[in-house]
Amino acid sequence: QLMESGGGSVQAGASLKLSCADSGRRIGNYAVAWFRQAPEKAREFVAAMSWAGGRTNYADSVKGRFIISRDSSKDTVYLQMNTLKPEDSAVYYCAANLEYFESPNGGRFWGQGTQVTVYS
Question: Using 50, 70 and 90 to split pLDDT, how confident is the model at 48?
Fold first, then answer.
C-alpha cells in the first residue's frame, strides 16, 4: 500500500518535502504521479515521473517550484515543494501504475494522502 508522509502547516514561501513509499511492492518498478485535492475541488495533477525517471512533467501551477524525484536506494519517490503559496493547500496523494500517467484515472495504486496547509 502506498503511503505519503511529510505534509504539514507552513507559512507562505516555505518548503516541504513529501515522500511516497510502498510497504508491499517496489515503487521503483512503477511510474508515479502526485495529485492534490482542495476542499470542494476536483483532484488535480501535480507532477509525474516514469518508472525509470527519464520522463517528468509538472502542472503549470507548480512548474519551477516543485520537483519530483526518486531515490532507488530507499525505494521512495519525493515531491520537493518550494516557495509554497496558500493556493497549494490541499491533500496530496501519490499514485502508481506500470505505465506513465498524468490523469487520476491512470493511477492504479493510491495512498491515503497527506495534508499540506500554507498560510499567508
Answer: very high
